[in-house]
Amino acid sequence: FEMKLNRNSILEDSYRTIMACKKADNLKAKLWIDFEGEKGLDYGGVAREWFYLLSHEMFNPYYGLFEYSANDNYTLQINPNSGLCNEEHLSYFKFIGRVAGMAVYHGKLLDAFFIRPFYKMMLKKHITLKDMESVDSEYYNSLVWITENDPEDLDLRFCVEEDQFGQTVTKDLKPNGEDILVTNSNKKEYIDLVIKWRFSSRVQEQMKALMDGFNELVQQDLLSIFDEREVELLMCGLGDIDVNDWRKHTAYRGDYSDKHPIIQWFWKAVILMDPETRVRLLQFVTGTSRVPMNGFAELWGSNGPQKFTIEKWGNPDQLPRAHTCFNRVDLPPYRSFQELWDKLKIAIENTEGFEGVD
Question: Which of 44, 58, 66, 267 could form a disulfide bond with 302, CB atoms 3.0-4.6 angstroms apart?
Fold first, then answer.
């Protein structure tokens, strides 16, 4: 499946190409991504980069399809008001579902993390009060209080207040909810309805469109063998990078070995990096910032399993160069740790686009 794309309009170009595909089975064919004006040969590295770059656009709250959860600006949830931001929103959710399905089918990763209830909804599983804890701790605590106390004095009703672009709107949780008092005897029903409203009923249409697209590539019965944590790892990989695991599953070429001074400096640099730089180094060499489900042992290259590889190359005046298709970094024999550190940082921070062998 070939796509010719412009980096500056990657979302629109990808949307047009993928939604123009009438037979979703065609999306299961080998991906061939061609970025306009670049001579990178796609042995898998450019496809991985495409999933990475497209994730940043699709899930960017700026477009109004997704928003950050109440607890952080890191985990995403579907924006209940997405239709007010984009009239074509359901078509875009189907597109996002197809892209997520393509990522799972082709063994690639999306660069985004969603709230746990999102994965449960994908699996059509019941969302519980406990699931709310990591998403909206304030709301969670108030609901826990209701479970442990008599809520009658609070004068709560079977309705909730919704914020729609600065306007507060009251919404019934059941017919005539505004007139029904929450008591000790009906509080369980109230909590169940609040959770349903908070996570699923407000985004039912969006979720259905997304899953329609996803299931065209990955059937529901195949997805159902996983739990929500495994689905997260399957789609998004590991968030934290285990440097010991990384080092353990690294191969060396040329004169390099794990005991070589240059390699000792390299791993010292990785340990000293802040988490973001470490992730950027991984992205520089492999084309993605995520680690596969079972760690570095399962890193893939263009021809299947491919360990992270460091090869001796060039001279100390040159910057390290990466071959994302082969998960390989060509590392010159630097004269000092400081020189390696400086050159590595420059290479990581100034690389976008593929040249030559990539």
Answer: 44
Q: Is 215 left (phi over 0), alpha (psi -120 to 50) or beta?
A: alpha
Structure tokens belonging to residue 125: 């599983």
- Partnered with residue 311 across adjacent β-strands are 253, 330
How far is the C-alpha of 178 from the C-alpha of 158, rounded, in Å? 6
* Catalytic hit among 21, 85, 159, 325: 325
Residues 122-131: pLDDT tens digits? 999 999 888 8
110 closest CA partner among 122, 94, 98: 98
Q: Is 356 exposed, middle or buried (0-12, 13-18, 19+ CB in 10 A)?
A: exposed
pTM above 0.85, yes or no: no
- 325 as an active site residue: the answer is yes
Q: Please state, in angstroms and as integers, the Cα–Cα distance from residue 244 to each residue in 30, 196, 249, following that order.
A: 33, 42, 9
What is the phi/psi pair of residue 68, to 5°? -75, 150
Q: Residue 2, SS3?
A: strand
